[in-house]
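Recall that a protein's primary structure is simply its ordered list of amino acids. Everything else, from secondary elements to tertiary packing, is in principle encoded there. The following example makes that idea concrete.
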Amino acid sequence: MANYEEGRLITDFDERYLPVGEKEAIPQVLEGLRRHEQAVARNARAVDRQLNGLQTTIVNLERQLQESAAELNGQIDNLVRLVDRIQQNNDANEQRFQQHQAEMQQQMDDQREEMEQRLDHRLEQSNATMTAAVATLDDELINAAERIDTLEEDVRRLAATSEQLRLEMLQMEANEVDLSSLSLESDATDEHARGPAQLPLAEQLEQQQYERLPENVKVLHHMVQYLRDIHAENPEYDQQHPLVELREELEPLLDRQVSMLPLQVISTPAYDGNPKTSIFKFLEEVEDDINTNTTFPLTEGQKVLRLRSHLRGRARQYVDSVPNAQKQTFQAACDVLKRKFNDKLVKRLADARLTSCYQKPDESVHAFSERLMDIVNTVMEGETVAEIEKASNREFKHRLTPRIRVEVLRVNPDTYEESLGTALQYEAYQDELKVINQMNPETPATIMVADVRNAECFYCHRIGHLKAECFQRQRDEAERNWQQRGQNNYRNRG
């Protein structure tokens, strides 16, 4: 290594340290070694300077780290104090909330008690008012009943008087007596001069319904009709004429008497918007009910009210929400229901039910046919009669019990009625054999059918059943029918 002696550089390769012979032999090598030694010395000094700088940097970093740690500790202390204050505030808020809740509960209890007292007081007042109103209504009903009895007596007297007057008028007409002094002109007015009279509901009765009316109602009806004929023959009578006033008084009485007559009641099921029930079938039943359960034809408003009385649930809520202008007539109300509860979902559900509709082992052919036809008619509603007939025959033949289905498919009828007749005939044959076996159990009769225990199915090629009884074939046909109906529904929607 190089060092210094008296201020000048001394190297290990100094000429003073080398023998004379070596000095002459390697002068160039010595010069290179000296330069290398100087470079190493410079590098060593540079490394020392860098180490000193690193030491200074480390000291500075340690000082900064201590300062940061002190600052962080201060922040942690501040955060702890802040958390303590927040906890104290939360505790104070919780106490205030509990106190406020207790005050609110007390206020609610006081208000509830006050409301109960007010409600009891109002109920007492309402009960007293209701009692007085009921008593007044009872008195009015009694007075009305007395007035009705009086009116009925007057009607009977008027009927007798009118009959006597009619006989007298006929007699006077026969004798060609001038009736102008009695203000009862018998000359008939021209047919075109008669204005169209607005007939009340009681005048629209039919002959067979008229025959079922009580005698007093018949007399009242006859009196009203007679007074109307007189008014029609004498259009100059004004509203203040005694006969016109009498007719106007008797017509409401006749309407009330008719409305109190008993009706033949046909029960119509209610409709609540259930997608399993067809809205079209329900409306047909309601229309039949209106046409059957009325002594006299109903007005459009009464028909709408009758329709509303058969609605339940969301169907009734929807009809009530529709403006009255859109349901003024029975047909308009029916159209409102048809637009809201259409049969698209009903058909889809019926289609799903048809997929799993097969005759049960203990189900009769007739009961199964009714159940199947109800589903088929729902699915194919709107199709032609021929299409429905074809589908009914196809579905009926392939959904019977295996033993009956074999016999029906063996005959292969062309129409649904023929298929139903064949199935009923074979079912009756089975029932007859059961009766014979019960009467003679020792030698039971058997149904002559082929032994299928060793037969091979031509569909799935398994042993033990025929093709007509193959369950795999039934599942495949049901799946194909389902896909075909889905495609038809898609085309219809398109």
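Strands lie at 3-5, 8-10. The longest strand covers residues 3-5.
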